[in-house]
Amino acid sequence: MSLLPARKKYYWVWFLWLAAFYSTWAWLNFGLGGWAAAVAHWPIAAAMAMGSYVAGSTPMGGGTVGFPVLVLFFDMPATLGRDFSFAVQSIGMTSATIFILARRQPLAWSLLKGAMLGSLIGTPFGIFFVAPFIPELWIKVIFAVVWASFGVLHLYRINEIAGHSGMTEFDERWDFRLGLKLGLGAGATVAAVTGVGIDMVIYAALVLLTRADLKIAIPTSVVIMAFTSVLGIAVKAIGPGVQPGVYENWLAAAPVVALGAPLGVFVVELIGRKPTLLFVAVLCVGQFVWTCVAERAALGLGGIALALAGVLAFLWGFEKLRAWGAELVGERREAATTKAATPEKLATEKA
């Protein structure tokens, strides 16, 4: 996997982006009369202050906070939460991505390129042919299950995940194909249905399969979520249509996340990624419990059991991915050792 080398930083690119965004946002509010709607939806802006930090400092998009706030706390439709996730991340995650690129942070480029191509195909497919057939209740449950499993994984594997340094180098074509498959599958399913999740899938592959450093895995997950969010909201806008209420909430939250997500990228390097990941992991498990309690009447015991089984299935998949990663790392080290051995050394060992 090729990595961006440490070079001169180009913060002016990010400041140029901010100037363009805030000029557009001001025109929408004061030129087209959106200010009243933005002020009326100030609670989501307050919530996204934390959500945007999560987006920039962890492998979880801002929708990880925005979705449960709108759906669980404000009792909005899950489809609105999904579309809002796409919309708000298209600003916050894009801002964080530009900041990451301006700072020349290392990324897993081969896997990322494959994931972007996969998402380009999978996300529109999922929006048109998968998401419309998922009931509102199960959009909530799928979101809760995916992020609960992610939270539990970090609660018992955090030391191992945070202890990786660099990453295992495989063949770049292999990395690209892996990213393509993951981007295609995650884009068509979890991202299209909930508005988040493809970042978690790519992150999991990086930390469990290639043993990537968090300084590589998290920025890479931010970039793929930015790409998928812009793609997702664009497809929704020209295709099935965006849910009513998304624009008004976006007007309120967008100026917050444009700064908050890049701030998360910067601040997490000062306080460390492990405390942030643990905090968010607890939130992920908490929102699962909240969803099961809030929807217990609709789910019944069978539905709750199915949700728990879903969490266990994801954890099983994570552990299989980790085991595969250990096998591949071992094979790679063995191949490197054999390649490094000279004929004289091999002859001496045989003797």
Describe this structure in words.
This protein is mainly alpha-helical. It contains 14 helices and no strands. Helix 4 packs antiparallel against helix 5 and helix 9 (198-209) packs parallel to helix 13. The longest helix has 45 residues, at 296-340. It is globular and about 65 Å long. Belongs to the 4-toluene sulfonate uptake permease (TSUP) (TC 2.A.102) family. The chain crosses the membrane at residues 12-38, 44-72, 84-102, 108-130, 137-158, 178-209, 216-238, 250-268, 275-291, 297-318.
Q: Could you give a short description of this structure?
A:
This protein has 351 residues and is an all-alpha fold.
Strand content: under 5%
Largest sheet: none
The tally of helices reads 14
- Would you count the extended β strands for me? 0
Task: Give the termini distance in whole angstroms.
Answer: 38 Å
- Tell me the domain tally: 1
Rounded Rg: 21 Å
Order of helices and strands: HHHHHHHHHHHHHH
What's the shape?
globular
User: Unreliable segments (pLDDT under 50, ≥5 consecutive)?
Assistant: 1-6
Which class do the helix and strand fractions yield? mainly alpha
Q: Percent helix among the residues?
A: over 70%
Provide mean pLDDT, rounded.
87
Features:
351 residues; mainly alpha; 14 helices; 82% helix; globular; disordered N terminus; transmembrane; cell membrane; membrane
